[in-house]
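Quick board copy: two proteins, each given as sequence then tokens.
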Amino acid sequence: QVQVVESGGGLVQPGGSLRLSCTASGIIFSSSEMRWYRQAPGKQRDLVATITSAGTIHYADAIKSRFTISRDNAQNTVWLQMFRLNPEDTAVYYCNAIQIYSYWGQGTQVTVSS
């Protein structure tokens, strides 16, 4: 059974930082492409960052230079380090694991507010 579990969300002030974690089990993690998406209230779910099994990284323009995606295959974990957060970053952040099929976590809420 595949499980994708995010953690690390919470309330942070504008300009602050937060690190999200995602652990995936039941798949060959090292062979999986890992993605972070986010969905703000009333909006579509948008791709934020991707890290392939080979370590190639892509970022959405909206967060480029503020967010960093990384992975550790030994820990079956991918992280999203977020810097200089602003209220527009408020959303539910979802982890997506792709290995033939696509698997989603339940999401973690990030709220940027003073």
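And the next:
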Amino acid sequence: QVQLVESGGGSVQTGGSLRLSCAASGRTFSSYTMAWFRQAPGKEREFVARISWSSSSIGYADSLKGRFTISRDNVKNAIYLQMNSLKPEDTAVYYCAGGQSGRGYPDWGKGTLVTVSS
């Protein structure tokens, strides 16, 4: 099991940028596929991006390609989400999640709130 703690959320104006971090503890982190999800007010949680343990495989939600970038540092036990050209519809609680490849995401953080104002 891996414990996950997100940080870096906050308030930003339309067009601004934020970088989210997710700190992980646990010996299995470096073997985990990691991902970011988000949940906007009144909406279901949705997939944002994922990254394999070696960073060789990366995927994004189609609607976010080109604006968001996921990365990881297995030495620092962390993943990141660089978000650029933010829009009000990006307002949500952002969660990081992790799990063994092909086995879903059993481990979740508590989330960090991102608010984008127009």
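Board note added afterward: The two ends are 39 Å apart (CA to CA).
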